[in-house]
């Protein structure tokens, strides 16, 4: 397991962030409650809105931040939804053509209650990730919830009586407590010479340090080469997109506002497990052990052929454990055509399609990806079997693109309502 709080944290977090910044800000809590039609009367859905600590951004600036020990429902609960968006210091939604939400990830970790506040005295076993059930290696895609620019229009709601179980005291090691962190990447594109290239984190559109390729390491801890044309590593904290000469713009404070709905856990809830699959997964074996080498992002080459046919990134992913499909959707970037998950027999399990904006208001920005469709199969109608090999295909327009992502989220239940 990777220790998110150790002195070597910035290396071990791999792709998630190259500059982790702690924040124990006071967060805003606005509780409300509504009753579910499908649960017993004594069970009710609670909803709360929280806001992370704020950080300053100016035209062209890039922020990669991690907020640890965020506000999260306490106790043994079942999470029904987790949604987020960017807001300014007044709480107003920020449109994507001004500030682009590249991604946000909510990650669970367990921390020793006696851990020293001094980073130099912390031990590797003092804090470690509790990742989702997905197949990716190490610290790649360990989160439970997270999207990007499509966040406002992509629902994370789970139908009754299913929920994502958290805070189960029997699954927390004695002397530890369960906590959550948020990792986010935000790109201010105001005044950028090329907004599209800026949001794709193209290295030649960034004001990179002169020694960038001499010191930057990739997800395998190898020196980044000049063949790397764009992606997460060229969108590090405090870097900046190249600006139009003479452009003037104000600086402002930005936060991530997130809303969580949950129920207190009881016998009426049915747990689902979260799997995040990646279309870059290069599956290989070491004897009887299956290894997954997920890259989290990829580049669509300039010589991809063009034309009307989309570029297809494909992975064949064996599932050690299966279950009944309850929810499915994809995390993609602008330019996406769709993403589809297939069963071993070729049956379509879920296709997630994009919605693009047509206006100017936040959540409907013209030309921007504003949502991905979600699959809600009739519970019990689609079953993924233990050991089944799934095929994930992510499709983008066939044009040069860097930092493309093809992540597929599925929630699987091992049992159904009686």
UniProtKB/TrEMBL annotation:
InterPro entries: Stress_up-reg_Nod19
Name under which the protein is recorded: Stress up-regulated Nod 19 protein
Organism, scientific name: Glycine soja (Wild soybean)
């Amino acid at each position: 397991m990777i220790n998110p709080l150790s002195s070597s944290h910035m290396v071990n977090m791999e792709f998630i962030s190259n500059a982790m910044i702690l924040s124990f800000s006071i967060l805003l809590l606005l509780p409300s409650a509504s009753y579910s039609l499908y649960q017993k009367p004594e069970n009710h859905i609670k909803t709360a809105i929280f806001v992370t600590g704020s950080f300053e951004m100016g035209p062209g600036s890039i922020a990669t931040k991690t907020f640890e020990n965020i506000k999260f429902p306490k106790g043994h609960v079942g999470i029904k939804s987790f949604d987020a968006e960017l807001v300014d210091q007044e709480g107003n939604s920020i449109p994507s053509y001004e500030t682009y939400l590249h991604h946000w990830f909510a990650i669970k970790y367990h921390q020793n209650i006696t851990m020293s506040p001094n980073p130099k005295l912390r031990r590797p076993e003092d804090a470690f990730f509790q990742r989702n059930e997905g197949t990716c290696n190490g610290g790649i895609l360990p989160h439970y919830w997270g999207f990007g620019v499509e966040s406002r229009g992509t629902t994370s709601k789970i139908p009754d009586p299913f929920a994502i179980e958290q805070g189960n005291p029997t699954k927390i090691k004695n002397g530890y407590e369960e906590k959550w962190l948020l990792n986010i990447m935000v790109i201010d594109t105001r005044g950028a010479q090329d907004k599209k290239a800026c949001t794709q984190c193209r290295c030649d559109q960034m004001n990179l340090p002169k020694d960038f390729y001499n010191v930057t390491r990739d997800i395998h801890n190898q020196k980044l080469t000049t063949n790397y044309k764009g992606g997460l590593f060229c969108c590090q904290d405090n870097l900046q997109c190249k600006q139009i000469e003479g452009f003037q713009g104000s600086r402002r404070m930005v936060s991530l506002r997130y809303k969580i709905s949950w129920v207190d856990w009881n016998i009426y809830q049915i747990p689902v497990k979260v799997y995040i699959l990646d279309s870059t997964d290069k599956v290989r074996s070491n004897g009887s052990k299956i290894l997954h080498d997920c890259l989290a992002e990829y580049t669509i080459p300039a010589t991809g052929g063009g034309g009307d046919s989309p570029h297809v990134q494909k992975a064949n992913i064996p599932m050690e454990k299966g279950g009944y499909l309850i929810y499915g959707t994809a995390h993609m970037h602008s330019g996406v055509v769709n993403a589809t998950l297939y069963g071993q027999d070729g049956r379509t399990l879920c296709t997630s399609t994009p919605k693009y904006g047509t206006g100017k208001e936040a959540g409907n920005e013209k030309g921007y990806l504003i949502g991905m469709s979600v699959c809600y199969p009739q519970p019990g109608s689609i079953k993924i079997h233990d050991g089944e090999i799934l095929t994930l295909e992510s499709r983008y327009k066939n044009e040069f693109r860097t930092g493309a992502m093809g992540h597929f989220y599925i929630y699987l239940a091992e049992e159904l309502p009686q």
